[in-house]
């Protein structure tokens, strides 16, 4: 954004330069040409000589066509010629006059400020125009092809051919093409050659007739492919290369890549592929294939061995005539039918049970006692807990939402955030940017009607007033003090359509886009076509599909005047652009835009629309819970009206809301700020988690009702809670721990989300074991009193059978009202998957799935595309797409340097780049070299070097730059327009003189003296003045006596994807480290987007650490509460497989790894545990009833019983509940909700359900640990009988399995 008024001066200089190169001789009559007395093209003859007037009143003096011999000069003219063109002109005749030499000198001085830093280019540039203007053999390579009449009616040159040797032209171009012009952070070639990319374009730019745009006043053609006219030759002479061996002409690294040191090769962690597969994926698949092959070979070997043993037994049987059971080999011989229809395991007389696990009994007793009190005194329990909730909810008075994106997504303690603060404090906050795209999706946007309309649109924007009366002029960024920075093609023409007539609009726009220096806007910064035109082909801007306009505003700290004024004006701008968007649509065009306030505003809009989705999700889950809690779908009978669970389901929903409210209030009191994601996601998440426990408690109470019909309600509720309490404790504790681990993520939005979630789960756990237990007892009393659900004051007459509770106990298990899910598990599912052959197939499928998921890990992308953060219908979606598709420039990057004493020569040499004694690996040299490998460095240009421009400003040859008033002893600067006679040029008489070796350049106090003059110097007439380009790039101490810190601005290549942004950040960090290693100075890179992408340098490592920590915690906790390391390890294995499979889905479904998905992964560990832990505990804990009627307590038998016992609750209460709730998120308008919550959570629910109900039971049946008996007192009379039977069997057991 830093720009200067200097380009006007440069243009005037170039114009004068061209004007002077052309008029070569005094005006003479073309008699010699007519008479033919002198051959037109021969050595010693001129083609032009003098000047013959102007083409127009405002034009320049043009040369006369003349075929005359070269002439000599007087002594003063000769000295002037030698001073300009060098000693080799000291004796020769010439084709120019003394007046021409004066014009030539003045004109060439204007180019000095651009090319003087490279002596080779400076020499070649001077020689090229000296030869064109004064060569005694001019006619041999200059051919006048057209003439016209001047205003004084004299014949003047209007067109000529200048024949130049192609090799000479290429060497000339090569010597100048890399010269850096730091004030614009561009190249001198952009100014002297129109941004030419080859020698033909360079010379064409110099020769094209553009008298009103700073170009040549007449046409100079450079024929390349034409046959030379008779007696003519191509001009050539010896040139200096920018890397010349003569140190007088050798250019510095910043202006000549051949003079630069070679940077070390960068070892990039490029992707390794074998065919289409990443090497890691290929290796994982090979390892799995080897393991699978080993398993198959081992299995075949064991089968053969068994056949061998069987053969021996058969031979012995035949030998001894022994009879064995014919059913010995039956795969299903252990499956029997009981009288209730169970397909169950026949007992082999082997168990792995112990009498009891004391810790489990203590926990059960503790839960039972609490439940008994809550059931006994429901009113008191509910009242106390409501009082606690109310007290905690008072913290909501301190509730506040954080909406600032930086404070949401960046940790205040992170290095990148601290660097942002440092940059803002020393150089000011980054500018506010308002960017607009006008797009034609069907073809080129470049039609005059579109052009004319866009001029009017921009005029409306410039005239826009905010509600406080603020205009663009009041709040825009003005580097030159009066003109706003508006980057738009309209600024080529001052924003006035009258300057772009319809008959010539194409030519003018193409001309300005090709040579932006000729069409400078009022703020004097050349407008690159890549920043204002988009989607053009073959470098032809007339094929552009988009016009780009960018308005740059001042910025300040939050709540500052600049911040408030900018925000206020942007609100009105947004409203105006939304209206203009409709106007564009009527014209068949599309308008997209972004203001500084847009993202935050659209995020809030997304949150408001998603509230409806959350409410619908609650209603759907409430309806499902109410229907499913009864075990079967209700009918319209009296019995159904009483057995309905709508009121109980509603209580569960309200408890979830209470837990969220309590968590919000509690942490708000502690000053933890909430986010919109917290307000939207946590209620849904806690509902999905909390409903599971409601199902478990309700279904367990039904079992207790059947087994203990004569106990009081309080006792039955106590038994039920005591039975499932340890499972709820284990799952809730795991969830709280995993949420707490998520709180270790540094990103505030994510950390606070995890904190509030952990609190909500904790409060939900407490409320479910108090309020819900009390409600459960009340609901049970209501049913037994024959009162209608929802309307308990209505009591129905007659006797109602409630799950058989009114009947005396009639067996080990009453299944007359078995739930649909449990019945399905018992009759069909469990018997099917527990068959030996089915087990092998299932294990193969799951382990193959795991291997594929691990192989997909490298495919997981990093990043969080900001398009996902806004609603699908937001206008920002189109803007982000257009930004990636059409904007041809990358974001700026600043290399910030501190702790460098720039007043010393050593400090100067570590930074500079334009002087021969700069350190070989100085800061500017390294950045210069890095910019030449953009695919690695992601830099498109080298840095704007203030120290080089400062020293160049002191160059006495640039006599319009540093000037002191005579007689002031160098204490007062001359004004820009002061008479040269009243000024002394700095360093003009210094000893040693100013030179590129830095001899005599200022140090210490002298440095600061000149620096303070330079930093306040305007850019006109000298383009190297520091005020406009560098006033915001250098920070002084309060006294102005010391440079505290400074920045060197470069630019990234266009960044099109999240990978580009991440790689650009990594490359900038690498470059900074290399600068520090080479120079010993302290430097860091800064760009506005860095704070969002710093996290990706360590996110993979952080993810692995968090997930491994969560799984280790779960293993330890489940081992303690299950008392079975084997079973705990299998649970951890299942959870690990679930997470791996989930990451595989992320790779396939476009879910990137970022802080949001990282926390979701950690949360997923807790949810996966909830799916698995109930099956595992049912496998581990056996009641006395399981020992009755020959029920097998081997691993296979317990796995079967765990599926039948709690599999239905896991599927119907956990899986389906979450699935139904998550499916509602598919209708959200927020893309971030859809990708990172719907996609991840629905995948998690499906994967977890499959692992918990398919893989886990089979794994437990093969590798599960020991079992232990639950508290004997929990099973009543039947349990005591079963205990006696079990005790008698234990004495008969001969084969016992190894315990853990």
Automatic annotation (TrEMBL):
Ranges of residues in domain SSD: 610-778
Bilayer topology term: Multi-pass membrane protein
Domain of life: Eukaryota
Subcellular location: Endomembrane system
GO biological process: lipid metabolic process; sterol transport
InterPro entries documented for this protein: HMGCR/SNAP/NPC1-like_SSD (IPR053958), NPC1_MLD (IPR053956), NPC1_N (IPR032190), SSD (IPR000731)
SUPFAM superfamilies linked: Multidrug efflux transporter AcrB transmembrane domain
Regions that span the bilayer: 282-305, 377-397, 613-634, 646-670, 676-697, 728-747, 753-778, 841-858, 1104-1122, 1129-1152, 1203-1228, 1240-1263
Signal peptide (residue range): 1-27
Record keywords, A-Z: Disulfide bond, Glycoprotein, Lipid metabolism, Lipid transport, Membrane, Signal, Transmembrane, Transmembrane helix, Transport
GO CC terms of this entry: endomembrane system; membrane
Pfam families, per the entry: NPC1_MLD, NPC1_N, Sterol-sensing
GO MF annotation list: sterol binding
Family according to the record: Belongs to the patched family.
Matches recorded under PANTHER family: NPC INTRACELLULAR CHOLESTEROL TRANSPORTER 1 (PTHR45727)
Protein name: Patched sphingolipid transporter
Organism field: Nadsonia fulvescens var. elongata DSM 6958
